[in-house]
Amino acid sequence: MARVIMIQGTMSNAGKSLIVAGLCRIFKQDGYRVAPFKSQNMALNSYITQDGLEMGRAQVVQAEAAGVMPDVAMNPILLKPTTDMGSQVIVHGKPIGDMSAMEYYGRKKEFIPAIMEAYNKLDQDFDIIVIEGAGSPAEINLKADDIVNMGMAKLADALVLLVGDIDRGGVFAQLLGTLMLLEEEEKDRVKGLIINKFRGDKEILAPGLAMLEERCHKAVLGVVPYERLHIEEEDSLAKQLDNMDSVAGIDIAVIRFPKLSNFTDLQAFVLEENVSVRYVNNVAELGEPDVVILPGSKSTSADMLWMRENGLEAAIKKLAHKGMIVIGICGGYQMLGVSVEEYSDRESIKGMGLIPIKTKFQQEKTRTQINGRLSDVEGALKALSGKEIYGYEIHMGESDMTDDLEGVFNCYGSQLYLNGRSVGFCRENIFGTYIHGIFDSEEFRSAFVKFLCDKKGMEYGNSKMSYMEFKEQQYDKLAQMLRDSLDMNEIYNIMGLER
């Protein structure tokens, strides 16, 4: 049986995911076989495993930090919001349907066998399991059927470390208030407190830490500094989505859809000098960038209409006619076409008409990893021809060429193929694909950025490391930061392990 420790937080975005990733890295460095686990994750950032199953990207990051292959057992339930009141429910990597919030919460206990099947698999294969909670364990309206915080801690008989976010203020009230709302058995599971995202001199906190320990009867195991690490974040509250500033050099504007998904597709640009990636909500923020990227969306039709209503569609089409590069990924690719037809009501909405494809949504979801070399690319982006790509597809729409070319902007172009399979379409300055993670490939990304630099008369400085090497470097930095700020000896003692 594995030793288990659980990280819970006082609120969403308290930093649980990164604390789990950092602990996974530390345990790996110390010679243990370690796996992350989150019974239920709600996120629009997801990933496809080698066996074609879908899981949250936060657990993928944690698995990478642990030095193990991502396994859907690490995230047995994934909720992908489709509306403000409902989500697609994915169990053991496969969608089982859409549910309203009320329906899902009424059925949560039905999923306990699936959760424990996944947990027991990890329990047999690893020395340590680091569990991540969700939101707060003190959501008293949800506690009765909880399967992700103290409910999960009880199922796994896990000891808990509670994390509070000082960056948003009120951290002492967060921690003390959370403990006050727990039942006695739950309080007993909490073996230590962690203050996260601190900026400044730790000595200033000393009086508050002493009073907190006195009132909570729990030890503060560390104060973790606020440090900007380039590690993929969860979706809705990610700091990078707030970036709206361009820098001198290549300006990439990403449309921030209300149902934006898999924005981690753009993370690898951090390796490219003089390239800025900014997220825009309206025409005023768009300006005239070098590239516009329409990223993934969990609700293609709704986000297409949102873009039409706020004027972004017209502005992007105008820039496209002037020769600006427009790239669509997954849902963004579907929007570039002539129309999108949902499977639920078979109503079709008009697309942007930049490429001659029609999309129809199906009941079955395409879920597959993909790698190979891209077929010939015509037009302005021909430098991308034959470049190596690796990534994954995850979509419910199927896009095909159409003969209905009325209103299509310059219908010439060609489908894109990888290993003989259609993965997108390109015409002149418009490029669309279903492949997530396409820019993670050094060869493809470098060719793309070099093309942009040449077009702008800039010198291209080739990045010196692969994206995976860069991520490994960041995981090591995270681990060292936690070693420097947490009482790891006490954490090992809590787990009953020798360091």
Given the C-alpha coordinates, what overall shape results? Answer: globular
Radius of gyration: 23 Å
How does the major sheet shape up?
7 strands, mixed
pLDDT < 50 runs, ≥5 residues: 407-412
Structural class: alpha/beta
Q: Report the end-to-end length measured between terminal Cα atoms.
A: 18 Å
Tell me the strand percentage band. Answer: 25-35%
Our count of helices gives: 15
User: Overall mean pLDDT score?
Assistant: 91
| Largest sheet: spatial strand order | 15-13-16-18-25-24-23
What does this structure look like?
This protein is α/β, with parallel strands linked by helices. The protein contains 15 helices and 25 strands. It has a seven-stranded mixed β-sheet with strand order 15-13-16-18-25-24-23. Strands 2-9-1-10-11-12 form a six-stranded parallel β-sheet, sandwiched between helices. Strand 24 and strand 25 form a beta hairpin. The longest helix is centred in the last third of the chain and has 19 residues. It starts with a strand and ends with a helix.
Write a brief caption for the model:
The protein is α/β, with parallel strands linked by helices and 499 residues long.
Question: What's the structural blueprint in terms of helices and strands?
Answer:
Elements: E1 3-9, H1 16-29, E2 34-37, E3 40-42, E4 46-48, E5 54-56, H2 57-66, E6 77-83, E7 86-91, E8 94-100, H3 101-107, H4 112-125, E9 128-132, H5 150-156, E10 159-165, H6 171-180, H7 184-189, E11 190-198, H8 206-216, E12 220-225, E13 250-255, E14 260-261, E15 275-280, H9 283-286, E16 291-294, E17 296-297, H10 300-309, H11 312-321, E18 325-329, H12 331-336, E19 339-341, E20 348-350, E21 357-373, E22 388-401, E23 414-418, E24 421-427, E25 430-433, H13 442-456, H14 467-485, H15 488-495
